[in-house]
């Protein structure tokens, strides 16, 4: 989910070599290159020579490249989370004083100094702060700010509201899908014995987690969730999937099963698809309210009497979820044994393994900063939000994909390599089931209803728009929701990035509300989409925050019979 990127650029290799060669001039060979770099950082010599300073500078650039990934522009590699403006006793600037510098004037307009009312452009400022926090997270300069806890621990579940009314059930490897091993020996990228979560290295992977709401029964519809992580990382207990799936179970009132499918390159698309089918069959024929009890391993429900089963997924998991629906629509989902999905919801899905859709260019990350002229730095007054006493640069605007920044072709190429690892071969990246963008019109026509949530700023937004258009044109029902200024899998940040002034992220809440109503509507109407019927075009809504604190699209959406409390 949270990281499509892997590998470093050639420039990084050259830079690391230069650092090591310079360091070898200064000190005896250490135990390893990494230890050497750490020693420079942790144990600086009292007398720092010019050459040593150059080594330290290059080391910082290496670290920045590691955090930023291949091809990231140098300006974007730096940490962009600014410190709070330093307190000042200076009086507030007048509009005339601020107008002496364009940047100061911009902040004067933002804060209301030059207008009778504060001019409110764009999303709420705390939402913008969330964008910066996400950028820092994805580029290695900050902690994860998504739903908490990031790693699930059953003994601490009572400390988090997302688990209220939810029974978490651990299903060991082999209960739902086959066991597998994630170790350094089989190149499993999720295994880092020296990292913060060494428990991901295990020979007992392949477990599943089931999140059962308090009022669920044996006949309650249920949801299979396919986690993201570039098909290389992640599990039901890591990367905040536990709180997110529990929240979906809370909102929908439906049990949610998430599986620890075999990651690439240990397995590829074909095996993962079978595991999704196998999980569908298990979910259709087992009573989630009895899971974990004696006899729970035996199928309790004949397939003909199975309640409705839906599928959901994010990022790469959203791509696999779509492939499962396409395989079903094409005739048979392997491993499902005749069980069927009745619909699906996708969050920022990765649908195009070729990674060549237009928004890789149009939505590339952009950070506009402006400098205060040296003669204007020491203004004799203050402006809210701007450090006029010493700041040499300040952010003016942020746009594009805050999660995955870099140069378009370098970015797209690295992701395409990732997609080929998942597909298993270059030929399979063009397979009409593995790559949703290659699906035939006949297959698309047989797809069950689908709802997609994607940020307008994402590099993946165009493939969601194109796919939903193709699906609707084929006669199937697709609901596409696009959200202004939102980033990759923003729905998982519903708690507001832990910002002290932001207890919820407006559009994340919208997407979760819409998920709930979509699944409930399908369940109540036996899979009939009703108001969701596309009639040849996607049911499309673009979500903007206007006025502040209100999702303008949700009131419009209410015309179709759904009630929402936002902005009331």
Summarize the topology.
Blueprint: H1 10-26, H2 33-42, H3 50-68, H4 74-77, H5 95-98, H6 102-111, H7 125-138, E1 166-171, E2 180-182, E3 202-205, E4 208-213, E5 222-226, H8 241-252, E6 256-259, H9 269-285, E7 309-314, H10 315-330, E8 344-347, H11 359-362, E9 366-371, E10 393-399, H12 408-423, H13 441-445, E11 450-455, H14 461-473, E12 478-483, H15 506-524, E13 539-543, H16 552-557
Helix pairs in contact: 1-3, 9-10
Structure in words:
The protein has 3 domains: 10-70; 95-139 and 360-399, no CATH class; 154-356 and 425-560, 3-Layer(aba) Sandwich (Rossmann fold). The protein has a 9-stranded mixed sheet, with helices on both faces. Strands 2-3 form a two-stranded antiparallel ribbon. Helix 8 links the parallel strand 5 (222-226) and strand 6. The longest helix has 19 residues, at 50-68. The chain is built from 16 helices and 13 strands. Helix 1 (10-26) packs antiparallel against helix 3 (50-68) and helix 9 packs across helix 10 (315-330). Residues 1-86 and 559-568 have low confidence and may be disordered. The protein is of the alpha/beta class. The chain has helices spanning 10-26, 33-42, 50-68, 74-77, 95-98, 102-111, 125-138, 241-252, 269-285, 315-330, 359-362, 408-423, 441-445, 461-473, 506-524, 552-557; strands at residues 166-171, 180-182, 202-205, 208-213, 222-226, 256-259, 309-314, 344-347, 366-371, 393-399, 450-455, 478-483, 539-543.
């Amino acid at each position: 989910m949270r990281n499509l990127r892997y590998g470093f650029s050639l420039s990084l290799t050259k830079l690391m070599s230069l650092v090591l060669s310079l360091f070898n001039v200064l000190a005896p060979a250490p135990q390893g290159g990494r230890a050497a770099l750490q020693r420079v950082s942790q144990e600086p010599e009292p007398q720092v020579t010019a050459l040593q300073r150059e080594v330290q500078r290059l080391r910082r650039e290496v670290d920045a490249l590691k955090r930023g990934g291949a091809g990231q522009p140098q300006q974007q590699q730096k940490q962009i989370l600014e410190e709070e403006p330093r307190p000042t006793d200076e009086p507030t600037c007048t509009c005339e004083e601020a107008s002496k510098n364009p940047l100061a004037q911009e902040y004067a307009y933002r804060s209301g100094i030059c207008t009778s009312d504060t001019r409110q452009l764009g999303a709420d400022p705390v939402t913008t702060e969330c964008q910066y926090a996400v950028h820092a997270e994805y580029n290695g300069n900050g902690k994860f700010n998504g739903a908490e806890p990031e790693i699930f621990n059953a003994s601490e579940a009572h400390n988090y509201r997302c688990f209220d009314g939810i029974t978490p059930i651990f299903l060991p490897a082999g209960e739902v899908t086959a066991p597998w091993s994630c170790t350094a020996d089989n190149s499993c990228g999720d295994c880092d014995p020296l990292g913060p979560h060494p428990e991901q290295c295990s020979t007992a992977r392949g477990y599943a987690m089931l999140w059962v709401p308090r009022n669920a029964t044996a006949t309650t519809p249920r949801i299979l969730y396919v986690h993201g992580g570039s098909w290389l990382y992640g599990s039901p207990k890591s990367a905040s999937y536990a709180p997110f799936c529990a929240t979906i179970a809370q909102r929908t009132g439906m049990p949610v099963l998430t599986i620890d499918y075999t990651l690439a390159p240990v397995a590829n698309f074909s095996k993962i698809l079978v595991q999704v089918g196998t999980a569908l069959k298990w979910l259709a024929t087992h009573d989630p309210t009895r899971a974990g009890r004696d006899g729970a391993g035996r199928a309790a429900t004949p397939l003909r009497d199975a309640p409705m089963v839906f599928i959901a997924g994010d990022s790469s998991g959203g791509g696999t979820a779509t492939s499962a629906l396409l395989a079903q629509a094409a005739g048979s989902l392997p491993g499902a044994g005749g069980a069927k999905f009745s619909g699906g919801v996708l969050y920022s899905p990765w649908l195009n393994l070729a990674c060549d859709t237009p928004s890789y260019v149009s939505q590339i990350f952009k950070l506009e900063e402006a400098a205060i002229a040296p003669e204007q730095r020491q203004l004799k007054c203050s402006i809210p939000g701007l450090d006029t006493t010493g700041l040499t640069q300040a952010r003016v605007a942020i746009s594009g994909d805050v999660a995955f920044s870099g140069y378009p072709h370098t970015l797209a190429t690295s992701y395409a390599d990732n997609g080929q690892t998942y597909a298993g071969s270059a030929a399979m990246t063009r397979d009409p089931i593995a790559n949703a963008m290659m699906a035939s019109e006949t297959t698309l026509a047989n797809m069950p209803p689908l709802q997609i949530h994607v940020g307008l700023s994402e590099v993946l937004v165009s493939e969601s728009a194109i796919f939903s258009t193709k699906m609707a044109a084929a006669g199937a029902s697709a609901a596409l929701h696009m959200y202004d200024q939102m980033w990759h899998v923003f729905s998982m940040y519903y708690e507001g990035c832990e910002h002290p002034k932001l207890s919820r992220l407006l559009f994340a809440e919208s997407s979760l509300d819409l998920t709930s109503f979509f699944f409930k509507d399908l369940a109540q109407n036996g899979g009939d989409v009703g108001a969701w019927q596309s009639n040849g075009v996607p049911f499309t809504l673009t979500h903007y925050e206007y006025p502040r604190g209100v999702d303008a699209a949700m009131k419009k959406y209410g015309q179709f019979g759904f009630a929402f409390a936002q902005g009331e």
